[in-house]
Structure formats: C-alpha cells, structure tokens
Amino acid sequence: MTPVITPARDWYVALTRREQVLVGTAAVIAGVLLLIYGLILPMGAAHDAAHVRHRDAVLAAGNVMAGLDQLENTPPARGGGPVAQAVAQIAATEGLVLQANEPRGNGGAMIVVPTAAPGSALAFVDLLRRQGIVAEQVTITPAADGSVSLNATVRRTGS
C-alpha cells in the first residue's frame, strides 16, 4: 500500500466498531455533499444558463426576421435624385460613416458601413426603407468587439 493509505487504514482499524460506524457515516455524508455542491448544482446552473442564452438567441433571431419582413413591405417611392446622395444624407443624419457609396445608375447604389452598432445598422436599413430606398442585398458581418460591418446594394422602389 502507499505511504498515505497505510496509516489511514491502520488508524481506522484501531477504532472501535461504534467509532468506525460514525467515521463511515461522516465520510458518506461528506461524499454526498461534495457530489451535490461540487458537481450536480454547478452542472445544473450551467444547463440553466445555456437555456437562457439559447432563448435570448432565438428571440434575437426572431427580431431580425421580423425586421427583414418589414423591409419587404416597401412604401411607394419618394423624391428624386441619385440614390447615393440620399443614402449619404441619411447616413450622415444617423451618424454612420460610409466607407463606400458607389452609384449604380440613378436608381441604385452599393454602400459599405465599416463599423456600426448592430441596432443602428438595422435601424439605418429600416430608415432607408421608410424613405423609399429598399435593400436588394444586405450582408451584416459581426466583429469581435460587438460591432458589425454592413454591405448593401440598395435601389429606389419602382426603379
């Protein structure tokens, strides 16, 4: 036997029967408490936290899908002039910096917002929709710092 177990075994054998029962009972109680508080409760808390994160992700995905559904219901076209100019004006009022704003004829443009908060990027696309400018293609790429990059091809409704 190992040097640690032999003295412990000798000590236990030297106890009276009554003391052995008490020490054994104390060891079982300690083992059960260690199992409950050291394994079962932390694993249950982690499981509950995973459910909360999953629920939050499902709600966020539902909000994004609802926003995309709203984007499909476009209002009638408003105003004239180049779309790139209108997009630049709306981005400036929203405090977003356009890295690229390339006109695609009078009725469309390709825009790039390099960094924005996720909510403000979707609000920007929604504001464009309310101004009669719809997104044909939108790519939102998350960054490690929690911001997003927005690439979109937009056109005026009816063009």
UniProtKB/TrEMBL annotation:
Residue ranges of the TM segments: 20-45
Cell compartment(s), UniProt: Cell inner membrane
Main location (coarse class): membrane
A Pfam entry, by short name: T2SSM
Protein name according to UniProt: Type II secretion system protein M
Keyword Transport in annotation: yes
UniProt membrane topology term: Single-pass membrane protein
Key words of the record: Cell inner membrane, Cell membrane, Membrane, Protein transport, Transmembrane, Transmembrane helix, Transport
Gene Ontology biological-process annotations: protein secretion by the type II secretion system
SUPFAM superfamilies: General secretion pathway protein M, EpsM (SSF103054)
Homology family: Belongs to the GSP M family.
Cellular component annotations (GO), alphabetically ordered: plasma membrane; type II protein secretion system complex
Domain of life: Bacteria
